[in-house]
Amino acid sequence: MDDLPPPAYTALEPYPLPTLSTLPFSVLTLIIHHLVRSSSSRSKLDLATSQQWLSKEARLTSRMFYRVIQTYLRTLHLPSYLSHVRPPFSSSPLPSSPFAPPIPTTSITALVGGGGEYQQHETGVLDLFVAALVREQAEGLESEGFGESMNWREDVFTLYQPQARLLDLLLQSLTHQPTQYTPVSLSFPPTTLSLRFTARKLTLFRTIHVDVVPRTQSSSAAGGGATRKRELVTLTRERGEKEEVSVDRMREGLRALRVLEEG
Question: Which residues contact 134 (CB under 8 A, 6 or more apart)?
Answer without folding.
Answer: 48, 51, 52, 54, 55, 73, 77
